[in-house]
Design brief:
Blueprint (H helix, E strand, L loop, with lengths): L8 H11 L14 H10 L6 E7 L5 E6 L5 E9 L2 E5 L3 E3 L14 E4 L2 H13 L9 E4 L9 H12 L13 E5 L3 H8 L6 E5 L5 H7 L3 H4 L1 H15 L3 E7 L7 H11 L4 E7 L13 H13 L3 E4 L37
Parallel strand pairs: 4-7, 7-8, 8-9, 9-10, 10-11, 11-12
Antiparallel strand pairs: 1-2, 2-3, 3-4, 5-6
Helix pairs in contact: 3-4, 5-8, 9-10
Bound molecules: S-adenosyl-L-homocysteine.
């Protein structure tokens, strides 16, 4: 605006149109002079991504496939539960962590997303909500390792948590950042004086099993991850959640549950069990219902706070760990109509 000799407050006006009033085009910004709107329209684009497909599952889960300027695609998922509307965002194209059961890392990391690309996922999902609905929670659990792109993520979250009309007005407490467990970055996050909820993907309670499932663990070590989580709690007062993907026959046995209970017994933490969502081409299996029940019961009997995550968006491949699974190499199945016969525009 300054370069164009336009008053600075116009920039704030435009920003709040996009962030607060769901504008997707300059021409709808009716309190800007018409000539300025036309000039902006010729010179700028509001979004850097384009929506390629929007799939809605029977349970209301909505997956958006967005294409970036460089042709890479990213996915974001909205989950509905009562009045909750939770947006799950991606932070990278691909992922460099290589967890052996996860689809996102099969081909490594391509690049970090920009703050704009991260923010747009939430804004786009919000813009598609019905009147009266609002984004109530954000979970950074899509594609990518969140803390490997911490600076861009934090910049996007500043806007998410700033008050309206310049931000989306979400409380920091309603934002969950999920990490594979990068201790240095966890410490940095703890020191920022924010109240984000931290979720750490543990998946195993012993060094040897975790090394097998989460290759980065070799370098980092289970102990360092747990220490950094403890420190996050001390510093922020926010209880950490440990995520644990249950893989049938691999880490869902009684002894695994007892080892996890032991690890949790001395700390104030919460465990979120995620029954595995099978990924085509990978040999892991979903745990049996009995195994999930047994695992949960063992934790509960040792007074560990535990929940089991519900699978949502299974039909449209929007469930945990499935992003990009169908679109990345199978290419355009989703764009060319609807192979599963269930996605609705
Ligand atoms: N890189 C971050 C975000 C990953 S996605 C992290 O590691 O936490 C969020 C969660 O989904 C992680 O706990 C991840 O391990 C888990 N996940 C990945 N693939 C999955 C699958 N196929 N089924 C269930 N959970 C999966």
């Amino acid at each position: 605006m300054a370069e164009r000799g336009v008053a600075g407050y116009r920039a704030r006006q435009i920003w709040s149109w996009v962030i607060d009033r769901r504008a997707e085009r300059f021409e709808t910004m009716t309190d800007l002079p018409r000539a300025l709107r036309e000039e902006l329209d010729l010179t700028f684009e509001i979004f850097t991504t384009e929506t390629i497909t929007r799939s809605v599952d029977d349970d209301g889960t909505t997956k958006l496939l967005l294409s970036c300027r460089d042709g890479e695609t990213i996915e974001t998922v909205l989950m509905a539960e009562g009045s909750r509307r939770t947006v799950c965002v991606s932070t990278q194209v691909g992922c460099g962590m290589g967890c052996v059961f996860c689809a996102s890392g099969l081909k490594g990391v391509v690049r970090n997303l920009t703050r704009g690309e991260i923010l747009e996922q939430i804004v786009r999902q919000r813009n598609a909500l019905r009147e009266g609905e609002r984004v109530s929670h954000v979970v950074v659990m899509g594609m990518g390792e969140s803390l490997a792109n911490l600076d861009e993520l934090l910049a996007a979250l500043e806007v998410v948590c700033a008050p309206a009309p310049l931000g989306l007005g979400l409380s920091q407490r309603r934002v969950t950042i999920s990490t594979v467990g990068l201790p240095d970055k966890m410490r940095k996050l703890a020191e920022l004086d924010r109240r984000y909820h931290l979720a750490v993907s543990l998946h195993a309670a012993t060094e040897s099993l975790r090394d097998r499932l989460v290759p980065i663990s070799h370098k980092v070590g289970l102990g360092a991850v747990i220490d950094a989580a403890d420190r996050y709690f001390e510093q922020t007062g926010r209880q950490v959640t440990f995520e644990y993907v249950l893989l049938g026959g691999v880490n869902d046995r009684g002894e695994d549950a007892r080892a996890l209970a032991e690890l949790m017994s001395t700390r104030s933490a919460h465990v979120n069990l995620i029954p595995y969502n099978p990924v085509a081409g990978l040999e892991f299996e979903r745990p049996s219902d009995a195994a999930v029940e047994r695992f949960t019961a063992i934790l509960k009997s040792r007074s560990v706070s535990v929940t089991v995550r519900k699978t949502k968006g299974r039909v449209i491949d929007a469930a945990c760990g499935q992003l990009r699974r169908r679109t990345a190499d199978a290419g355009s199945e989703l764009f060319q109509g609807d192979p599963l016969g269930t996605a609705r525009e």
